[in-house]
Structure formats: C-alpha cells, structure tokens
Amino acid sequence: MAVTPAATTISPQVWELIKRFLEEKGLVRQHGDSYNEFIDSGLQAIVDETGEIPIEIEDYPLKIKLGRIEIGTPRVTEVDGSERQIFPTEARIRSLTYAAPLHLEMTPVIGEREGQTEIVYIGDFPVMLRSKICPLSRMTPEELISIGEDPIDPGGYFIVNGAERVVVALEDLAANRILVDKEQTGVHPTYKAKIFSTTVGFRARTEVTLKTDGAIYITMPGVPSDVPIIVMMKALGYSEDSRIADMVSPDGTIQNELASTFEKSVGVVSQRDALLYVGNRLAPGQVEDYRLKKAEASVDRNFLKIGAVRRLISQKLLVV
Asked: All domains of the chain, ordered by start, with CATH?
C-alpha cells in the first residue's frame, strides 16, 4: 500500500496563506517586534522598578535616584578614544560587537535634598539588525548595497565579537493554565490535566491523571512516584471522605466514579497518615519525624502552601 506524504494533505489555500504570511511578516518579524518593544518600554520599566540605589555609608544618608534611560546609535570606540558610527559589515570584519551606548539619568539624594541630575554612560547595548535603532532599517536597497549589506537580509540577529548570533525561538506551553489532554497509549485512553505553575524564579509542573485502573493520581515535582489524589487532599487537611467527594462534585453520579480513587487511599485516614504516605516515598527508611518534615516541605514548596492552609484552619477560616 502506497503511503501518501503528509505534505500533500495540505490544501492549496493553506499553502497560499503560508506564502502570504511569509511575504508580509517574514520569519523574523517576531524577534524585531519583541526587541523594539523592549527598547520602547522594557528598559525604562526595569529602571523604574529599581527606582533608586542606596549607598551604604555610615552616618551618611546617600542614595542615587534613577531617571530616564536613553540608547544611542551603534558606534565604535577606537584605540585613541575617538568614537564614530559603525555598520554591521565593519563589525563582522573587525570582530567587533554591533552595539549602542546606554545613558541613564542619575540624581544624588542626600537625606531629603536632591543634587544635580547628570547623564551617565552605563554600558553598551547589543543592537539587533533591522530594529528601530539600527540605521539599516531606514536605508534604501541602494544605500544598503553601498555599505556592503544585503538588501534582502531580514535582520533579527546580533553581531557579537564579529560573530552573528541569533535568538532561538522556543515553543513552550502556556503557564498557569490548566491543559486537558487524552493519551491513547494502549487499549484504554488516559486522561490528563496538567498545569505549569510559574512565578518569579520558580516553575513547576503538576499533573493529575485518570489512569486505566479508574483511579486519579497526582504527579508533582520532588515526589518520585504518583500519589492518589485522595491522599494529597488528606495531606492538606481534608480528612473526611464525604467532604472530599463534595468538593469534586455534588453530582452523585460523578462521586460514584471516585470509588476506585478512594480504594487507593485505604488505610490513610488522617492528615498525618497522608503525610507519612508521601514521606515514605521521599525518605524511605528514615525516622518518622524526618519523613513528616520532608513531606510537609515538598507539599509546601511544590504543590500548595500547606503552612498557609494550616493557619487558615487554626483561625477557623477554613472548615475541614
């Protein structure tokens, strides 16, 4: 039996749409747009977030107040200290970095009294070719050819020490959104709900799976094996089975579907039992107190703030 290439299943209309997209947007348009947005607002937002820099001098209340940041045009500093404009071709040939100077407004503040504001050079910023601060973006094809540039070069990359560096696009799942999926790995399908929880400096993937045995399990970072979802609920302080079932759904038909899941947690009655269940998988063979602490730390960091849940329970703000 002949196998038809997947590409032949794409309709002519789709190919025409792809062609139009490449003609109008190009392959690197997203890089340029992102860079320009960072130039327009991102740099200043970083400065505004910092606001001021305190200078630690004993008995001398000094701080530096930060103001407007400005970026110049690409330039090169020669050995004699002189500066002049540079184009990408020269940067490639001379193994230079195609960059522009950054200047920042700084105001010394002594106590409550502000000094004179000065514009201070703080470093060089790599310039993306064909971005809004790159002179190439404002040149005609004839002018580009005259300075040794390819007029059909789309840009979207940097030149660092003479080498061309491109930003690699990365496709990633949306953070902090529940994604539901169905996997057909065998005779019976497996249903999964997963979320990539992301905050500053932290990223964790949590996954809830309805397996072929009819039970629901949770997978979270730091725990080497799946944990029945009922055990995890009890680890958070929800010790009554009826309460957990009502939290899933008030519909009796759906609650009946949880029978296999409750069977997987037989023998786990209290919160302590549930934490020991998790701790036995984190630190097998260790003393009980150590296993409890490991379980609490794992649940607290990788799943939910169990300490906050306990405080709510103690303040009778959360009924379990």
From this structure: 10-166 (no CATH), 179-314 (3.90.1110.10)
Q: Is the pTM of this model over 0.70?
A: no
Encode pLDDT of 29-88 as tens digits.
888 999 999 999 999 999 998 899 988 877 778 899 999 999 999 999 999 989 999 999
CA distance 138 to 132: 8
Q: How far is residue 82's CA from residue 180's CA, in Å, rounded to a whole number?
A: 60
Is residue 127 within 8 A of residue 74, CB to CB? The reply is: yes
State the residue for tokens 């409550």.
112
DSSP string spanning 141-173? Answer: HHHHHHTT--TT----EEEETTEEEEPPP---P
